Structure formats: C-alpha cells, structure tokens
Amino acid sequence: METPKDLPKFAVLQLSGCSGCEVSLLNSDEWISNFQLVYMPLVVTTHKIPEDVEVLLVTGGVRTDEDIHNLRKGRARARKLIAVGTCALSGGVAQFKDKHIARESFIKASHRLRMPDMLPNAYPLDRFVDVDLYLPGCPPTPELFLTALKDPENAKIASIVCQECGRQKLNDMRPKHITGMRSGVVLPDICLINQGYVCVGTSTRGGCGALCTRPGHACVGCRGPANPHLNKDPEFVLDNLRRVFTRMTDIPIEEINATLASPWLSLFLGQFTDYTQDQSLPQRTKEKML
Ligand code: SF4
Ligand code: SF4
Predict the structure, then answer these.
(1) Which residues form the domain of 27?
(2) Cα 97 from Cα 37, distance rounded (Å)
(3) Residues 201, 228: one domain?
(4) For the purposes of burial, counting CB atoms within 10 Å of the CB of 122, is it exposed (0-12), middle (13-18) or buried (19 or more)?
(5) For 9-20, how does the pLDDT look when each residue is reduced to its tens digit (9 = 90+)?
(6) What domain count does the chain have?
(7) Do residue 143 and residue 268 come from a single domain?
(8) The pTM is what?
C-alpha cells in the first residue's frame, strides 16, 4: 500500500482571486487517498512550494507584481501547471479595475512594509508562464478537479452544457419576451430558453454536470467556450447565441442583443474572447482544455 510519502505531490497556488476554487477542491475528498497536498496556504501551513511538485494548480488572475513573481517561481518548481477557474483563464473579477478607496484603507489598516504594485489590469496566467492544462469554471466542480489531477488526457467531457442538462427543447413554446435570469416559477424538464430565460448552455463547454440548469438557474457560461468556439471572434459566439434565441423564441432581436450585452453575462462571456488576438498569449487548443 502506498504511504502518503509515495503519493504524487500537488500544490495549490492562489493569486488574485476569491478562494472559491479552493473551497470547491476541498468539497472533494477523493484526492486525499490519491495525492499528497504539499502546499496550499488556505489549509497547509508551509512557507513555500517544495521543489519536486508533480502538479501545480494555480487559481486567481495576475493582478500584482507579487503575483507574477509567485507564478514564475511556482512554474519553475512544478512538472505540470494547471490554470484553474475563470480568473486564471481570463483575469476574472479582479480585471474590473481598482477600487481605490478600498485599497487605500487596506494599506492604512495593514502594517505591511510593502504593498504589491498593482498592474494596469488583471491578466490570465498564460501571459507569463506556459500552461499545460486549462480547467475553466467558477469554480470548477470537485469532480473536474479530480479529473484534472488524475487522468485529464482520457477525460470524456460533454461538448456543451445542454448535453448534460436533460431539459427538453420544445418547438411550440415560444416566449415573446425575456423573463430574466431567474424569476418566478421555473417549469421542470423544459429548456429554460423556451421559458424566456437567458441560458447560454448551447455555446458553453460541458463537464459541470449542468449544475445550474438542472435545478432551474440559467447557465451564464462559467465553463467558457465549447471547442467549436475556442479562439473565435466574440462576435461569432454572440451570433451563435442570437441564432439560438431567434430559432427558439419570438423575442425581438433588440431585446436579445441588449440582454447578451448586459453586465450579468459579461464576466463569463469575457472568457469567450479570442485570445489569439493578443500576441503575448499562446493559442488555447482543445487538447489543453478540460
Ligand atoms: S436549459 Fe440551457 S443548458 Fe439546458 S437545454 Fe436549454 S439551453 Fe441547454
Ligand atoms: S451550468 Fe453554466 S454557469 Fe453553471 S456551472 Fe455549468 S457552465 Fe457554469
């Protein structure tokens, strides 16, 4: 039997993010018997990432010079680096600029000798280091974490959320207006678009088990683009969503456009960006996406 010392070592490095990904990982305990967690400041007391780490999971975006420093140091110590969650893949919430007042009061209240310098924006990890695998989600489910750690090459991931949703798309139930994201009574078993909800599961990569849509919450796209939408102009994705809504509903196109451009979708639809436009980023191939 393998002792904990023989088990492959993995570490979790948190950059600028909210710890939601860490909490999701902790919701799974299967890794305890398969891996040795050697660094994760939230739960394991240790000062630095050990030298011989098999897998480094990195959560959060790059928002400060300290983030760049820690990321590069972590990259050098790990055989494989996995970018985890929305912030690591697109910058996430931290890209919505500084809240200067909050920052000032934090500086006053803390007695740190040096505050990390803010970068102009929050950036994804692959702008600074090579990424071996991308694990999108906000946060990724515990099952996805396990797959990423164990055998990502042979994982069978549903291509879009609809495949895991189980709700039926109907031809004869055509809403005339958008209901919203979630309000009123949601009918079971029927596609949320047929009920006027703004669900983007048709373009979003699967793998989450349709966590939101099955109980009646519209998918906001946190798993990012499905493979056919990778590295495509955002207009391609929006066109695709428009086509779905015009095919399934009688909602005026202006109303559909206004909703697709609304703030509640922008955080995650931002992940549908064409990253190839940024010369400092490598192309994200489907083989590297989980
Ligand atoms: S509710 Fe959303 S995820 Fe489910 S089938 Fe409809 S569009 Fe697809
Ligand atoms: S249903 Fe959509 S928003 Fe919900 S976890 Fe899955 S991809 Fe994310």
Answers:
(1) 9-155
(2) 33
(3) yes
(4) buried
(5) 999 999 998 889
(6) 2
(7) no
(8) 0.86
Number of neighbours of residue 123 by Cβ within 10 angstroms: 25
Give the pairing type, strands 62-64 and 118-123: antiparallel
Residues 120 and 187 in one domain: no
CA of 250 from ligand 1 middle (Å) equals 17
Cα(first)–Cα(last) distance of the chain, in Å? 30
Q: Torsion-angle region of residue 127: left (phi > 0), alpha (psi -120 to 50) or beta?
A: alpha
Mutate to test the pocket of ligand 2, among 222, 268, 289 (most ligand atoms within 8 A of CB): 222
Question: Per-residue pLDDT tens for 114-139?
Answer: 667 778 888 899 999 999 999 999 99
End-of-domain residue from the set 125, 155, 185: 155
Residue 116 and residue 100 share a domain: yes
Q: Are residues 86 and 170 in the same domain?
A: no
Considering the domain architecture, whether residues 200 and 263 belong to the same structural domain is answered as yes
Give residue ranges with CB within 6 A of ligand 2.
161, 204, 208, 210-213, 219-223
- Residue closest via CA to ligand 2's atom 2 equals 219
pLDDT, one tens digit per residue, over 37-66 is 999 988 876 778 988 899 999 999 999 999
Residue 195 placed within a domain = yes
